[in-house]
Design goal:
The chain contains twelve helices and nine strands. The protein is an alpha+beta fold. Strands 1, 2, 3, 4, 5, 6, 7, 8 and 9 form a nine-stranded mixed beta sheet that branches.
Length: about 450
């Protein structure tokens, strides 16, 4: 057993990696330094998915390794696809990413591009895809289950995952507990389609972005296929050539106000009219966890995938799905029982009030009838508790502990969007930063290049 434990780590990967180093590692007398100069490099795109709830975003951070890139680059080093220290010198890898997702945001269609070690020796042309390293399986061996590489593709030397993306599609999931007017939300979403100045639907950073015009190709509210205890999940599905920082979450926040009847569908059109609304009203972002980067579109991309690799990913994701389904069943069971207990309390109070008014005797049958009526009313209209906390949640149903503790407190009246205090205008920000106003929404650089 001791001899087996002393074998170098690459021997565990030899079934996946067909390079000479890995195939010889099992017979090596001990660890040997890996010579990257012996091998060619291959410039590839990686198709990446991740559940981002427990991560601090996609991009590496100086003060935290708990990011997608903070986990991915060490994994690439462990499987000898990039040299030690290469993650600190991104330029040496020609690295690019399609979309920079924030803390808590997930992705199904993220695309990254970088140079990886090839199976070919130095000076040789990379082999056909069938003879190349199985990059997804090799990398996934070193990744946690919440991050998976789904495929890879050859790309041209000048390829950029950011600037080469044709379109990006997001989904933002929301809970319909009976309190959302989905038809109104759909009508509001239609105002988004087309090219507009989205300064009122983003977090402005004039140091990084000068052009706030973006084109939305489609936007719709659609069912997400999940139902539980009288609630269902719906999704805003939105596709565009590029998006501004926090644009989708700002859009989701406004659409949720429309769905609750706090704003009219026309508010979207009014906020897009910069002549009428040049300054962004102050409002909170929708929560980050329900946001999914669903797909990134590229012309001519030929993804390399294997059936075995996809089966392994399905097994991993299926295990996570089962865990969440069990959690949903458990909490829905608790929720239903609490509904019944609350209904019983309400019915008992109503019975006592009727007795006091009529002076009649206690009636168990009347109590049972009233309990059943209360339960049916809550099932038909959404629970009173859910309705009361809907505004407090602010994200379509995700309710924090602090909000739960305050749900019985009186709610301040909703201030309509156009009557709220506003942020400084983009023009004011430009002047304060010393940026020439003629650069605002300049068309010299396509909007798709400012994602």
């Amino acid at each position: 057993m001791a001899a087996a434990a002393s074998q170098p780590v690459p021997s565990a990967l030899s079934a996946l990696c067909r390079c000479r180093w890995c195939t010889a590692a099992s017979s090596a007398p001990g660890d040997r330094p890996f010579d990257f100069n012996r091998y060619s490099q291959r410039y590839v795109a990686l198709h990446l998915m991740y559940i981002g709830w427990s991560y601090q975003g996609l991009a590496r951070q100086a003060d935290s390794d708990n990011t997608i890139e903070g986990v991915l680059f060490p994994a690439l080093r462990r499987v000898k696809l990039i040299p030690e220290g290469a993650d600190a010198e991104v330029s040496s890898l020609a690295y690019s990413r399609c979309g920079r997702t924030d803390k808590g945001v997930s992705a199904l269609g993220q695309v990254l591009a970088l140079r990886l070690r090839s199976n070919a020796l130095a000076g040789q042309a990379p082999p056909p895809a069938g003879g190349e390293l199985d990059y997804p399986s090799l990398i996934n061996k070193a990744l946690p289950d919440t991050i998976r590489v789904l495929g890879w593709a050859d790309v041209a030397p000048e390829f950029s995952a950011r600037f080469g993306c044709r379109d990006r599609e997001y989904k933002y999931f929301m809970v319909q507990d009976g309190g959302l007017d989905l038809a109104a939300m759909q009508a509001a979403a239609q105002h988004l389609v087309g090219e507009h100045d989205y300064r009122n639907f983003c977090k402005a950073d004039v140091a990084q972005v000068k052009n706030f015009r973006r084109e939305v190709l489609s936007a719709a509210i659609e069912p997400a296929g999940v139902r539980c205890v009288g609630m269902s999940v719906v999704a805003l599905r939105i596709k565009g050539t590029a998006f501004l920082w926090h644009q989708v979450r700002c859009i989701a926040a406004v659409l949720l106000m429309v769905g609750r009847g706090q704003e009219q569908p026309a508010i979207v059109r009014q906020l897009l009219d910069i002549s009428r609304c040049p300054c962004k009203p102050q409002y909170s972002l929708a929560a980050e966890e329900p946001l999914l980067l669903f797909a990134c579109g590229f012309d001519g991309m030929q993804w390399q995938r294997t059936e075995a690799g996809l089966d392994k990913c399905l097994t991993v994701v299926g295990s996570q799905l089962q865990r969440h389904l069990v959690a949903a069943a458990l909490t829905s069971s608790v929720f239903e029982q609490l509904q019944q207990e609350r209904a019983a309390l309400l019915a008992g109070r109503q019975q006592r009030q009727q007795q006091q008014a009529a002076g009649g005797p206690d009636c168990a049958a009347l109590l049972q009838h009233q309990v059943q009526n209360c339960i049916e009313q809550q099932s038909n209209t959404g629970t009173a508790a859910a309705a009361d906390v809907r505004d407090e949640a602010g994200d379509g149903g995700s309710l924090g502990a602090a909000a739960a503790a305050r749900w019985l407190a009186p709610k301040p009246p909703h201030i309509t969007m156009l009557k709220r205090a506003t942020e400084p205008s983009i023009e004011e920000r430009f002047r304060k930063a010393g940026i020439p106003l003629e650069l605002l929404n300049q068309r010299g650089v396509p909007a798709s290049m400012q994602a």
